[in-house]
Amino acid sequence: MNAVPMSYVVRNLWVRRVTTLLTASGMALVVYVFATVLMMSEGIRATLVATGQPDNTIVLRKGAGAEINSGISRGQAAIIETLPGIALDAAGQPLASKEPVVLNNLPKRGTGKPSNVTMRGTGATGLLLRPQVRLVQGRLFRPGTNEVIAGRAIAEGFEGVQLGATLRFGGRDWTVVGLFDAGRSGFDSELWMDADALMQAFRRQNYSSVIFRLADPEGFDALRERIDTDPRLTLEAKREQRFYAEQSESLANFIRVLGLGLAAIFSIGAVVGATITMFGAVASRIGEIGTLRALGFRRGAVLLAFLAESLLLALAGGVLGLLAATLMQAVSVSTTNFATFSELAFQFTLTPAIALQSLLFALVMGFIGGFVPAWRAARMKIVDCLRAA
Amino acid sequence: MFVLRLLLKNAFRHRLRTLLTMLGLVVAVVAFGMLRTIVEAWYAGAEASSSTRLVTRSATSLTVPLPLAYAERLRAVDGIDSISWSNWFGGIYIEPRNFFPQFAVDPSSYLALYPEYRLSDEQRLAWFRDRQGVVVGRKLADKHGWKLGDTIAMRGTIYAGTWSFVLRGIYDGADAGTDENQMLIQWAFINETMKARSRGRGDTVGVFVVGIRDPANAATISQRIDAQFRNSLAETLTETEKAFQLGFVAMSEAILLALQAVSFIVIVIIMAVMANTMAMTARERLAEYATLKALGFPPSFVVRLLFGESLLIAVLGGLLGMALTLPLAAGFAGATSSLFPVFRVSETTLLLQLVVALFVGAVAAAWPAFTMSRISIVSGLRHVA
Amino acid sequence: MQDLADAVPLIRIRGLHKHYRRGEQDIPVLQGIDLDVRAGDFVALMGPSGSGKSTLLNLLAGIDKPSAGTIEIAGIDIGTLGEGALADWRAEHVGFIFQFYNLMPVLTAFDNVELPLLLTGLTSRERRERVRQTLELVALSDRADHYPNELSGGQQQRVAIARALVTDPTLIVADEPTGDLDRSTGEEVLALLSRLVAELGKTIVMVTHDPKAAARARRLVHLEKGVLVDDGMAAAPLPG
To answer: Is B9 in CB contact (< 8 Å) with chain C?
Structure first.
């Protein structure tokens, strides 16, 4: 079957520029919302997944869900440290870090509104366990002192958290002696300090979690079983990546469901726009359709031509919307993660999959919008077309 | 009247196109209304606050507890009428999806501070008498089909283990804005159980709720309270209940801003669609407009025809959208009662929906009306659409 | 019949020029027309395509503005009127008959005829009475509530003529009134136009290609390349 040439399709879109632009803009906005939502969800996931190392394990109290709800006594922590299967550092000591986690209110930069920031008591071992964390300014805090180091997102997003600044909490003053970059992971939104100093300041007896590296990545199941069945320990072990993935789930899901629901609703508006445009296109070219058919083009060719016009229109809108969404990558957002009750900073992350999904979404809209008009155009009788022209 | 008839006939000349445009408008108006209602629901907690209640919590963060011993010192502060306390229980009922807020409170003082929770005297006493008793709001009881005397099992996350409570009272909210989705537990029961399980833990409180006589003194009294506990074990931060609730809203600020931005995006989308419709309509009727001008109708007549038709379609679509928003919101409220205890479409929202529809109708017609009023009669007549 | 031979002409055109700009070029369409039309005259403007006859008609009707020269109609130089005043002038003084009828498709025949009366100060009842009378004149009373797409070409043109008449204008302009009609229907329309002149004393200026139409006119004016070749006065009988 001879197809109507593509140049005919393109030219028609160009000739009715205003209509094409308006319809494509409507679609572009819908695709923008669609892509941005997916990028947001992906950004949250990526941030939290980057937080976990594949061979790290985190131990929490059974059923705690988040570190702030969890409590591990000194005795229990000591038992964990002695378990076989934990990797050893250069000095032959187990690579395990016992960490208390406390939430603190700090005022956000710009609005001054207080928001919860995760404060983690850790040490040199804790740093070793997180290779993605690098000190970019200053130095690590000294053990037993009231010194802190701040993650990049905290230094940028909150007031008064720069190198040399003093923070007050737990009834004493703390000095910011260093800033660290955690490779766009959740740790960027944390303040780190000496574990004992933190526990003393808040009169804590218990740690929140214990993190250790597996000597053999395959040894996780055995260790988990061991911890689960030990009657002295009311604790559970998770792979660090799994733990952080779970933390992002509810927030990422919430955003995805809300956002896609909105995009679906908006798409109705865009599809309506496309349908109106395509009906108009058919109506204004009735004479041409008759002529094309008289010349020998088949019904199928007419259908394809108008469908192609609609799809091209949608694709233009989709590309525009995607480009606009790409710009969002320069924006960093932070919100309170429901699971941890504390600030989480993340980026809008564009992946090839999201780009593809966005363009497909646009094409689907174009198809739905253009199908009925194209169908009608193809079904008209030649004589009716020529008479009506 | 002639003109109105002309407008109506012209609007439905192209029935399919007009109906499609109205569909788009309905969708946009409904989406706008729902988004606004969601944002308002988020603030519902703050709206329901009482100006005579203050909330005192740890200055460090809400997750750090305060000692129960503070209660006595609080009672002594000048300007305070009464105090109570509350701990966020954070338990799970069967599965996390069934989330609802649970507070472990001091029963008699708490109910006194929250007169909007209406409870019969009989149920009130039954609760006071039963350490393991709980009181829930009407909406929550209806949702899970709980009856008085039922045993309710909760899985603790903060207070580990399985807990068995007995339903002793169901409260009704005093007005539409009161949260009926909560469970109130006896603080003493939780406290004793925790102390028995692990020595050294217990006798701590999440927040103190403080009742004051005169709302105008809220700021002064708040500062007085915080001054009491400065430089002590646990410093406090006292604020009005409204400020406290707004603090929670602020946590999701980014999301709320996004929702509000998106509600404008939907308006822009439908404006593009409607502007397109009106542009197409105007183009088709070029010869007619030229004829009217030739007959002596002033350019403003053509403008009025285009605006009139556009606004007519917009208003019809807008009204339909407003009518649809109400049942939709009711359905949404039912499905998300755990997230949004209060979910109503406000009068402001309905009004704004109409304004949006009119605005879209006006903007959509603006450019075509302008260009059509200025067409030269001669070239317009020559144009066979 | 009145003898209007020595009366002041209804239309006095002097030194009429019209040119259009197309990009860089100035295209002259009318190059100095002097023309008089007396009240009650039936004038046919003829000429090859590109001669400017339609342009002359448009200028007379006040839907276009001259580049130079004067057009006096009933004492008013319409070339000096502003756009708003021109619109008002048209509403009061001109009736239009177009080749393609130009009726509003969404209005009935009755409503279409009523349309120009909206621009007058008449009450609703007065308007309706006028419309009824005019429809009777063109013998379409029984079709008053039909829509244009339910009427034949000839009937639509008669509605258009009724619309042109209903405000009792000073001047009726017709642009190829029989252009879209078959011969017999065209005859009917032309007969009607002749009656308007003979019985109601209307003044009609008509552009036409149709020799049958031209035959009905009392005076033939020929244009060629924007200038008057024959003002038809020599051959024209006096009105009356």
So the answer is: yes
Would the CB atoms of A65 and B157 count as touching at under 8 Å?
A: yes
Helix (H, G, I), strand (E, B) or coil at C13: strand
Secondary structure letter of residue A108 according to DSSP: B
Residue C1: the pLDDT is: 46
Burial letters for C175-185: b for 16+ Cβ neighbours within 10 Å, e otherwise? bbbbbbbeeeb
Between strands B161-173 and B133-137, the pairing is: parallel
Chains C and A touch (3+ CB pairs under 8 A): no
pLDDT of residue B385: 41
Q: What is the mean pLDDT of residues A109-113?
A: 84
Residue tagged 């594949």 (tokens): A54
Residue with tokens 């009023």: B373
- Mean pLDDT value across chain B: 90
Beta strands A332-336; A343-347: pairing state = antiparallel
The whole-model pTM stands at 0.81
- The reply to whether residue B376 touches residue C64, judged by beta carbons under 8 angstroms, is yes
| Helices and strands (H, E) in chain A, number of each type | 12, 13
B276 closest CB neighbour out of A61, A258, A277: A277
Interface test with A, best of B26, B63, B98 (most A CBs within 10 A): B63
Instruction: Return the bridge partners of A56, or none.
Output: A213
> From B15, which residue of chain A is nearest by alpha-carbon distance?
A276
CA B160 to chain A, closest CA, distance in angstroms equals 7
Q: Which subunits sit against A, judged by 3+ Cβ pairs under 8 A?
A: B
What residues contact residue A341 under an 8 Å CB cut-off, 6+ apart? A66, A68, A103, A116, B62, B63
Nearest CA in chain B to C164: B295
SS3 content of chain C, % helix, strand, coil (to 5): 40, 25, 35
Token pair for B86: 């509350």
Q: How far is CA B141 from CA A124, A259, B149, B343, in A?
A: 51, 31, 12, 18
B252 three-class SS: coil
Digit-coded pLDDT (tens) for A211-269: 999 988 888 998 899 888 888 888 999 999 999 988 888 888 888 888 888 888 899 98
- Count of CB atoms within 10 A of residue A92's CB? 6
Residue A210: CA atoms inside 13 Å, Cβ hemisphere, count?
Answer: 28
Cβ partners under 8 Å of residue B213, min gap 6: B52, B79, B81
For chain A, the structural domain boundaries read 6-49+247-388, 53-246
Contact B156/A63, CB-based, under 8 Å? yes
Which residues of chain A are within 8 Å of residue B61 when distances are taken between CB atoms?
102-105, 116
- Please list the residues that pair with C68 across neighbouring strands: C17
Pairing of strands B204-205, B66-67: antiparallel
Which chains have at least 3 CB atom pairs separated by less than 8 Å from chain B?
A, C
Answer yes or no: are the C-beta atoms of B368 and B302 closer than 8 Å: no
Please, what are the domains in chain C?
39-64+80-230 (3.40.50.300)
Inter-chain CB proximity B61 and A113 less than 8 Å: no
Give the C-alpha separation, C124 to B324, whole Å: 40
- Count of CB atoms within 10 A of residue B346's CB? 13
C140 touches chain B (CB under 8 A): no
CA A279 to chain centre: 39
Residue from the list A19, A69, A111 with its beta carbon closest to the beta carbon of B280: A19
Task: Give which of A60, A72, A272 to mutate to test B binding, by max B Cβ within 10 Å.
Answer: A272
**Listed range (A64-68, A315-319, B131-135, B346-350) with the worst mean pLDDT:** A64-68
Among B residues 30-89, those touching chain A with beta carbons less than 8 Å apart? 30-31, 35, 59-64
Strand order in the sheet with C11-22: C25-37, C11-22, C68-73, C76-77
Please report where in the chains the tokens 């797409």 appear, as a residue.
C149
- Nearest CB to B296 within list C64, C91, C104: C91
